[in-house]
Design brief:
There is one protein chain. The protein contains six helices and 20 strands. It is an alpha+beta fold. It has two domains: about 20-195, Jelly Rolls; about 230-350, Jelly Rolls. The strands form four sheets. The chain has a five-stranded antiparallel sheet, with no helix packed on it. A five-stranded antiparallel sheet has the order 2-3-10-5-8, with no helix packed on it. A five-stranded antiparallel sheet has the order 7-6-9-4-11. Helix 5 packs across helix 6 (about 340-350). One of its GO terms (cellular component) is apoplast. This is Cupin type-1 domain-containing protein.
Length: about 350
């Protein structure tokens, strides 16, 4: 039995090691999709274009009974997401349009970029958390919770969502119950619709390795969810400014909403993948890879990024090397820079 337990542990560790031994695994859509995703495309055939998705560009016309148009960027259409545990979608609403109550097997974060909507979710205690969102607002929906969005403005609305799974699935509750082959009598019987749905962090207590302790559910309000293994950031660039080369312990997906930037990453074979992005373009950066963004436009630029971790960390490489207590001698040795360049960098950061 002990040997059998060791075997299973070994198999588990082997599978985890295999999962992280590649910088990325762009899905080969010419092959069948397996339980763990697609097989990897031959790295020799991978180009920067594989990491950029342009399907969010332009206007989208809501054209269904719900008054919405949903443009998915899951691994089936954006194979760079394969194996990275992250995906996106664009939601366009006609006036009065809705995304009906639905669920995913992942957490979701929504960013409103146009119009005004009511968004919310319902937990398994049947408590609804909903709020009217304005442009720039962000709301999170915990994993597997029923949630919805309604355009309550007098103009069309647009939102982008990020989900912490490459193929998070989408199950519309009304469609599942009433558009399939479920008999009416069973639907009637089961529509008397089921431990902890979410954990809003209690910032008054110390943070442990597993995150914060949970806030008392009785004190949780909708406002706690407006601003689960997912996080976001907004990047604003002055003309000619950059986000210096950096890394996170998570994968990242970037959506450009203003201006034009060059974005890219460098894999562990020292191959760089970079491209000029325009408004509406999306680029994905694999977990732990060094990456960067540069405003190459004559006007300011803005991007929003989503990361598939609640605390993904940020390590700026130049800052790490030259702004801390690392001695100039060691910095010189480990960067192959000249002493003069090392001291120049440390002077910039005030640590010379």
């Amino acid at each position: 039995m002990r040997n059998l337990s060791f075997f299973f542990v070994f198999c588990l560790l082997s599978s985890l090691s295999h999962a992280i031994e590649l910088d990325f695994c762009v899905g080969d859509l010419s092959l069948p999709r397996g339980h763990e995703g697609y097989a990897c495309k031959d790295p020799a055939e991978v180009t920067t274009d594989d990491f950029v998705y342009t399907g969010f560009r332009g206007e989208k016309t809501p054209n269904n009974v719900f008054g919405n148009n949903v443009t998915l960027a899951f691994s089936d259409v954006f194979p760079a997401f394969n194996g990275l545990g992250i995906s996106m979608a664009r939601l366009d609403f006609a006036v009065g349009g809705v995304i009906p109550v639905h669920s995913h097997r992942t957490s979701e974060v929504l960013l409103l970029v146009k119009g005004s909507i009511i968004a919310g979710f319902i937990d398994t205690n049947n408590t609804a958390y909903y709020k009217r969102l304005e442009v720039g607002d962000v709301m999170v929906f915990p994993q597997a919770m029923l949630h919805f969005q309604i355009n309550v403005g007098k103009t069309p609305a647009t939102a982008y969502v990020s989900l912490n799974g490459a193929n998070p699935a989408l199950q519309l509750t009304p469609t599942a119950l009433f558009a399939g082959n479920l008999p009416a009598d069973i639907a009637q019987d089961i529509t008397l619709l089921s431990q902890l749905d979410f954990c809003v962090g209690d910032l008054s207590l110390p943070r442990g390795p597993g995150g914060y302790a949970c806030k008392d559910p009785a004190e949780v309000t909708t406002d706690d969810f407006v601003y689960t293994g997912i996080s976001m950031a907004r990047l604003d660039f002055a003309v000619g400014r950059v986000i210096q080369v950096h890394s996170h312990r998570t994968s990242e997906v970037l959506l450009l909403v203003k201006g034009s930037i060059i974005a890219g990453f460098i894999d562990t074979n020292n191959t760089s993948y970079y491209k000029r992005l325009e408004v509406g373009d999306v680029m994905v950066f694999p977990q732990a890879m060094l990456h960067f963004q540069i405003n190459v436009c004559k006007t300011p630029a803005t991007a929003h990024v989503s990361l598939n971790g609640a605390n993904p960390a940020l390590q700026l490489t130049p800052t790490a090397l030259f702004a801390g207590n690392l001695s100039a001698d060691i910095a010189q040795d480990i960067t192959l820079l000249s002493r003069r360049e090392v001291m120049r960098m440390k002077q910039i950061f005030g640590t010379a």
